[in-house]
Design a protein that fits this description.
By secondary structure, this protein is α/β, with parallel strands linked by helices. Helices cover about 35% and strands about 25% of the residues. Strand 15 and strand 16 form a beta hairpin.
């Protein structure tokens, strides 16, 4: 078989070998773009890149992309431990097998490139420790925000900064659904079905719409910026399933849009860190409020640089493949010259976070403060607002504004309250008590109002 048939560089002995573990959407994108741009990449890097092996579940299965049979492997561990392959791309998804493959490659002193935010969130500490111990390297630009180079920005361009505030849209599926609900005045279930048909949402949408995908990405950013691994179980994580078209109308009347946000804040005076993922009312004046569709957007506030903003496609084959190939290029530079543009990710989080495990602690609920939007379905009768206000006052929650609109249910009304500054503990206690009132029907909906300082 000729080099042209295998689509490999003409000088394979000079090439850097790459192994792809997984050949789904992202793996196919990496193959496509490395093939298309191989000459230009070789010129930029000073060395050609060669895909030497690809692990797939079934090497015999017909594929839309024709692959040379000699490249295919059934066992990803064979690729991970092949001494002729110094760069291993873990693109399988999941965590169990992906962890085994990643650790095996790192123990062999290899460079691993991964787009797997769940793997990093659950096993990041073990992965980085293994890389340190065995001289491997772990690059993960594609794990957060797809084609938006947020990890590279934090680790390189903003390395001199400490980060009191990072927030933004980290899940394109949710942003697409919320955008369509707002623009078309359409219910959640209808837009979700359309998103699945278009390929923007998975058949099992729970990871996206319940906030867990964004929480995994937030965990990665929190570790990078602050050196503390925060599992999603210790974050505030809420999804978008209960947001209705009426909430968008109410928000617009108040001057807000609704976005699913990941929010990482650190008070350097108390060394308290907060990591949250939830739908939020964002002022129309905030640039991120106008970021729609499948796009991601992240605002990063540094103590030296001020606020910087990053916007781009957060998912999809091309965007994620772009980030993976960026890591491959850094890996190639490291292999060729012993150094690369970024700091090796396995050494430590950012300098500002180096002492974090011993000094930074998660903020308790009573220290997480903000304003809130509360929607209740209540009986349409005198004295209802007074009873609700009484419950809120008991927990030191002060009402800022009130909107009342007709409910779809007979003899009921939709009551929307916004609050002055309160805290998460007080709001949880308030919701619990309000839900017990006979005048309240169904579970109240609580959304945070986020007005960020820039």
């Amino acid at each position: 078989m000729s080099n042209q048939d295998t689509d490999l560089p003409a000088s394979p002995n000079a090439a850097i070998n790459i192994g792809l573990c997984g050949f789904g959407t992202v793996g196919q994108g990496v193959w496509k773009h490395l093939k298309r741009d191989r000459a230009e990449l070789a010129a930029r890097l000073g060395v050609p890149l060669r895909i030497a092996a690809i692990s797939v579940r079934d090497p015999q299965r017909p594929r839309a992309i024709k692959l040379p049979a000699k490249l295919l492997r059934a066992d990803p561990l064979e690729v991970a431990t092949d001494p002729a392959i110094p760069i291993v791309c873990e693109l399988m998804g999941g965590t169990a097998l992906a962890r085994r493959v990643t650790l095996a490659a790192l123990k062999a002193g290899k460079i691993v490139v991964s787009a797997n935010k769940a793997l990093i969130c659950e096993h990041g500490a073990e992965i980085f420790a293994t890389a340190r111990k065995h001289g491997g390297h772990f690059f993960f630009e594609a794990s957060v925000a797809g084609g938006v180079p947020i990890i590279k920005a934090l680790r390189e361009g903003l390395i001199a900064n400490r980060f009191p505030q990072i927030y933004g849209i980290l899940n394109g599926t949710c942003n697409y659904i919320l955008t369509q609900m707002e623009e078309r005045d359409a219910p959640y279930a209808e837009i979700l079905a359309e998103a699945k048909a278009l390929g923007y949402a998975e058949a099992d949408e729970a990871l996206d719409v319940q906030g867990w995908d964004a929480a995994h990405k937030a965990a990665v950013l929190a570790w990078l910026a602050h050196g503390l691994w925060v599992p999603p179980s210790r974050m505030i994580v809420e999804g978008i399933e209960r947001v209705t078209p009426a909430d968008f109308k109410n928000a617009a009347q108040l001057g807000y849009s609704i976005k699913l946000l990941a929010i990482i804040t650190r008070d350097f005076s108390t060394e308290e860190l907060s990591v949250k993922v939830h739908p939020a009312l964002l002022p129309d004046s905030d640039v991120i409020a106008s970021v729609n569709g499948v796009y991601n957007a992240i605002s990063v506030t540094g103590d030296i640089v001020g606020t910087t903003l990053y916007i781009g496609k957060g998912a999809g084959q091309d965007a994620t493949a772009s980030a993976v190939i960026s890591d491959i290029a850094d890996a190639a530079a490291l292999l060729r010259s012993g150094r690369c543009a970024r700091l090796p990710s396995e050494l430590a989080p950012l300098p500002s976070a180096a002492a974090a495990p011993s000094t930074v602690k998660l903020a308790p609920l009573e220290r997480i403060e903000g304003r809130y939007y509360l929607r209740l379905t209540v009986r349409d009768e005198p004295g209802v607002l007074a009873r609700i206000a009484s419950v809120m006052a008991r927990h030191a929650v002060s009402i800022s504004s009130v909107l009342q609109t007709p409910s779809e249910f007979p003899d009921m009304a939709s009551l929307v309250l916004t609050t002055h500054q309160a805290n998460e503990r007080a709001m949880r206690d308030t919701l619990r008590q309000l839900a017990r009132l006979s005048i309240v029907s169904g579970a109240p909906l609580l959304l945070r109002i986020c007005e960020f300082k820039t």
